[in-house]
Amino acid sequence: MSNPSILILPGDGIGPEVMAEVRKIIDWFGTQGTTFDVSEDLVGGAAYDKHGTPLHDDTMARAQEVDAVLLGAVGGPKYDDLDFSVKPERGLLRLRKEMDLYANLRPAQCFDALADFSSLKKDVVAGLDIMIVRELTSGIYFGEPRGIIHEGNERVGINTQRYTESEIDRVARSAFELARRRGNKVCSMEKANVMESGILWREVVQKVHDEDYPDVELSHMYADAGAMQLCRWPKQFDVIVTDNLFGDLLSDAAAMLTGSLGMLPSASLGAPMANGRPKALYEPVHGSAPDIAGQGKANPIACILSFAMALRYSFDMGEDATRLERAVEKVLADGLRTADLMGPEGGTPVSTSEMGDAVLAALSA
Ligand SMILES: NC(=O)C1=CN([C@@H]2O[C@H](COP(=O)(O)OP(=O)(O)OC[C@H]3O[C@@H](n4cnc5c(N)ncnc54)[C@H](O)[C@@H]3O)[C@@H](O)[C@H]2O)C=CC1
Ligand SMILES: CC(C)CC(=O)C(=O)O
Ligand SMILES: [Mg+2]
């Protein structure tokens, strides 16, 4: 049998820095008898610099073949003035669309060691474990028409929010399936009060629930109120299912419940491949963080936890995933802190690579 295959796309800014720490962990698994066939390629600004496109067709083809893609982050100020069609972020959107990765799982868990550090009160976040399921291949990031057009004397920026029933149906099913393996509760968030796409979203989620998941507790919430509730009392939620735009915003907000944007991993999953496993891309929720890139300050934990999700969802290595998560828990409990996690309560300051080394040491102990 061939080794499991991984395509690594480090990307831009802190992407390569945090991915280097995951690479150490992948190499360590090789010494333990699980060798991954790893290939590496360019995406985002790095791909644009070499090929004039943020995602080369060969890279796209390779992404379709492998068992899992690991991505760091894309984008940066250097590319701000590029034509929109070749912006780094378009490379990532193309991967998501062409791999049809419709369910983006963004778990927000607050490790005990960071409960004091969160900007919210300790009892609000301690023990928090919620899962945001964000629809990832449709909605306003992809809808047509889009563009900037001229109308009279001025320009008009246009994006279109568009959802088909089947797009809502399949992501709702992902959320209900996950809920059954967790706290058995789904809260669906949209803006059915002001958007037709929200009305359809609510109807379809309710129908999927009533027909196939009546055992799961379902509630509906307007996304603006949902954002407020997420900050007020996040433990009321188990699984949140929402659209592409709202999921993007709500998950960055949820990251702060865990202490830092540098803590939040994600798995983007599509339909099962011939081997029964989903097409998959794993990436931290954060971006390329140009303000700290190249300084050894980036927190690699979101990227490391994204690899743990890969072990769980793409490689049937759930026990190893849990071991890796426990290793992260241990280094945090030991007081190791990258700059983003350093608060008045202190801790041992560590660089990106020192944090990666410590996680690896805890994993291999
Ligand atoms: N999936 C991706 O590749 C994403 C890419 N981006 C792109 O990244 C670029 C920068 O976007 P921003 O809005 O600044 O968002 P960002 O997520 O890169 O950074 C926001 C803030 O969080 C901090 N931060 C992020 N990750 C961190 C980590 N691992 N450790 C410590 N601190 C961390 C940054 O220093 C910054 O202060 C843009 O070009 C944006 O389009 C943004 C979000 C996702
Ligand atoms: C294409 C990305 C830059 C959008 C984003 O912020 C995200 O997916 O979290
Ligand atoms: Mg985002």
UniProtKB/TrEMBL annotation:
Subcellular location: Cytoplasm
GO process annotations (BP): L-leucine biosynthetic process
Residues bound to Mg(2+): D224, D248, D252
Classification via PROSITE patterns: IDH_IMDH
Limits of the Isopropylmalate dehydrogenase-like domain: 5-359
The EC number(s) this enzyme carries: 1.1.1.85
Catalytic activity field: (2R,3S)-3-isopropylmalate + NAD(+) = 4-methyl-2-oxopentanoate + CO2 + NADH
Signal peptide: none
Presence of keyword Cytoplasm: yes
Pfam hit, one: Iso_dh
Family per record: Belongs to the isocitrate and isopropylmalate dehydrogenases family. LeuB type 1 subfamily.
Record PANTHER family: 3-ISOPROPYLMALATE DEHYDROGENASE
UniProt subunit comment: Homodimer.
Function description: Catalyzes the oxidation of 3-carboxy-2-hydroxy-4-methylpentanoate (3-isopropylmalate) to 3-carboxy-4-methyl-2-oxopentanoate. The product decarboxylates to 4-methyl-2 oxopentanoate.
Protein name: 3-isopropylmalate dehydrogenase
Species assigned in the record: Pacificitalea manganoxidans
Gene label: leuB
